[in-house]
Amino acid sequence: VTDGEAPVTRVEMFSDGVLAIAITLLVLELPFDKVGDGDLAHALGDHWARFAAYGLSFLGIGILWLHHHAIFTAVGHADRTLVLLNLIVLFCAAFLPYPTSLVGDYLSAGGSNARVSMLLYSGTWTLVTGAAAAMCRHVLRSRLLSSDVDPAGARRLYRNLVGATAAYVVFTLIALASPAATIACYGVAALFFLFTSDFRALGKTTVD
Amino acid sequence: VTDGEAPVTRVEMFSDGVLAIAITLLVLELPFDKVGDGDLAHALGDHWARFAAYGLSFLGIGILWLHHHAIFTAVGHADRTLVLLNLIVLFCAAFLPYPTSLVGDYLSAGGSNARVSMLLYSGTWTLVTGAAAAMCRHVLRSRLLSSDVDPAGARRLYRNLVGATAAYVVFTLIALASPAATIACYGVAALFFLFTSDFRALGKTTVD
Amino acid sequence: VTDGEAPVTRVEMFSDGVLAIAITLLVLELPFDKVGDGDLAHALGDHWARFAAYGLSFLGIGILWLHHHAIFTAVGHADRTLVLLNLIVLFCAAFLPYPTSLVGDYLSAGGSNARVSMLLYSGTWTLVTGAAAAMCRHVLRSRLLSSDVDPAGARRLYRNLVGATAAYVVFTLIALASPAATIACYGVAALFFLFTSDFRALGKTTVD
Amino acid sequence: VTDGEAPVTRVEMFSDGVLAIAITLLVLELPFDKVGDGDLAHALGDHWARFAAYGLSFLGIGILWLHHHAIFTAVGHADRTLVLLNLIVLFCAAFLPYPTSLVGDYLSAGGSNARVSMLLYSGTWTLVTGAAAAMCRHVLRSRLLSSDVDPAGARRLYRNLVGATAAYVVFTLIALASPAATIACYGVAALFFLFTSDFRALGKTTVD
Prior knowledge:
The structure is a homotetramer. In chain A, α3 packs parallel to α8 (179-196) and α5 runs antiparallel to α6. The relative contact order of chain A is 0.14. Chain A has helices spanning 8-25, 40-46, 48-73, 80-95, 97-106, 111-141, 151-177, 179-196. Chain A is elongated. In chain A, 74% of the residues lie in helices and 0% in strands. By secondary structure, chain A is an all-alpha fold. Chain A has eight helices and no strands. Chain A binds chain D through residues 1, 3-10, 13-14, 17-18, 21-22, 25, 28-29, 76-77, 80, 83-84, 87, 90-91, 94-95, 97-98, 101-102, 105-106, 112-113, 116-117, and chain D through 12-13, 16-17, 19-21, 23-28, 30, 32, 35, 39-41, 44, 54-55, 58-59, 62, 65-66, 69-70, 73, 194-195, 197-201, 205-208.
């Protein structure tokens, strides 16, 4: 137990709280008071970009939570670096409702505003996935692992997170060319991670 | 312990967080800045549909939480299918403040906007109850049950959830004919579930 | 373990979540976008009623949480009645940001709108305290008590809650005559409960 | 176990909930609907003060949580004074989105409104840090310490909190002269605390 250690359990609980609140607050960026007196069905259709951005951000934070959880079951104790990297992950997740709202506002109009909003959205995802990958690598390197963790599983999780970060860098480049194509990329990526990621708990859990 | 397993305890905590936040965020769709300078009592009466939708959604998420909790006490461990079905349940619950707000906005005006808003509201409830029923069935079929669970109780819970899903499909059809009658149906259903549902924990709990 | 039982631990966690969210959401009713371009210090002074209502509701939910917590340490298991009474407590707490906002909007203007907003505020507090008292009585009567609970302490807690309910009924009557005097009553009551209430845990706790 | 004791575990959970919600709600003060139809990149740049205030408040609550957590690992049981001081800490944290929003609104315009908003912001931070220091001192003095706590570590934590309170008093004075300089002070302080504070758990934890 070294410098700046904090017990993992309460770090997990605080992180779960922030991620659960961020995923639920996303609903507030849907068009609550912007539908007006016209035809509701048409008005909802005009806001398709808001619903798409909402769905993708919800899935993204959900998948992030699954990975975050898988990492922390492997962690025996926390040091300052882990706490700081975790703070970056939480910052990005808590900030995400804002770029999600910008994408919902500006994507369908196209032009440079669509590009700026999508760059901010992609940048946030790149940063959060990169921080999660760095967190995973730090746990592996610094012997913060619980004694009963399968190191092969932890390395596989790390490779997945590096792969996801690389994908989001590519998405950021695609956003420069076509913001609308980027949103389709996020949809494909979300389905890919949902059906292929290994969410298995790395460490022992209280239940099984 | 098979493919994609995540420990149940933290899944429960994250789910509790999302459901608690969704049920509390509902208050934000009440008419905060829409009352104006006129007579407050009359203005509140004009917004009756918002208060009705708020109350019904609050009760609905509360009952959903009770069933969700009853299912998870029976779960020994989680696989990918359980995690994905649970994500659908949480998505619908977190999304619910939006259709609740649309019903509050458009129900009292009637016409096609009232119908569209009530269809979206009923569709969300049908999906969330159907996903909860599928989750319960998957737990029963896949031997994810804890060793100490009463299978008869789990089957009874499953039948209740299938019955609720069927009721919400009927409510969606009623919404096509009369959105205002549908809201009365939801009120009757909420009282029925509150006083007849078996919320008994299926598995062992830490307290009793 | 009888009809409709749910384990207390997760009921407590869900209740804690709703109360923590409701107490934090109160901040959203402060005058965020209503200050405008004039002098900030004067504008904040004009909104004194919002700040007063915010502070009183924050203290009120905090004290409610302390009592809620004290009751649940005494509870060995939950039945349907306890779950339903708890749902009423959570409903009132989650609803409270709305009447708090109305009091903040209409109290300083006086007239019938100030009276209606204060009646709704006082009615909510009367209902929540009454439901908490009924919950405490039900626990005492129904032998839901943990085996290691001091019954004298539980009865003292019950008498406190009945006294608070009676006080709030009186405050509701005062609100008919003078809404501004009522807000002073709430301030005195909050200080009284903070410094005299017995928040001692009735049952055993995991820590001590 | 003396007057007004409440078990620490659930106090921690409620505090974690309030801090997690407050840190995540901060995002709602970002310029969601204030960007309009002009150039998005320029509009975001014009709102630099909102983003700066958001980032500083996020870091500040994150660091507060780390200290709060470190204190509570040392606490064996809670008395009334601890509960009341903790309520002041939670009140300030839950209130913080409001002064953060005022700083974001008025800092870049300068003048007396910038000064008033920064005084309210600095006053909130001074009060929350002072209450945390008083809480730490009370735990040390009142023998509320767990039996296995290192008293030297607890005294070091207390000195850090007193130092932070003194720094915030100075920042409040600087705000009288130059609100814009104050925001830079908060940035330096956040980095200083992140990289030098001793977040080590004082007491035993469930994990290590």
